[in-house]
Amino acid sequence: MASRKYPPIRDRFLSKTKQLENGCWSWSGSFFSSGYAQFWQGKKARKASRVSWELFRGEIPVGLYVLHRCDNKECVNPDHLHLGDHSQNMREASERGRHHSGPRHYAFRRTEELTNKVRELRRSGWLIKNIRAHLGIGHGTYWRCMGYGS
Asked: Which domains does the chain have, with CATH numbers?
């Protein structure tokens, strides 16, 4: 039985990128549900940003993340990536406005005033997505105001 000949990983990886004017390498392959680019190696799906780092920069030390300078989850340009730990990742996300806080945070505790407003809008026929957008609240906060959850 003849074995299948696969192109080198680097060639296969680059075939799934498109260079944009802003310097990002846009990923044309598949994506995780989180929106991050994914690259299949055998039967294992890996974050394409990590694969990019390994292909063009080298090994990723244990405990470090591959972070995006460009805040583009689809970008796999190694020049737009850097290594950092969890706290640096969280700090950068917060500084760049990628963390939900206040009523958009999943663990936000509703107020009586907010609960009354949500229920009033729902009774008057507003759609859930419109209530959430109007009040700037997350999915969980909406449902807690409606009496589901804690």
From this structure: 9-95 (3.90.75), 102-145 (no CATH)
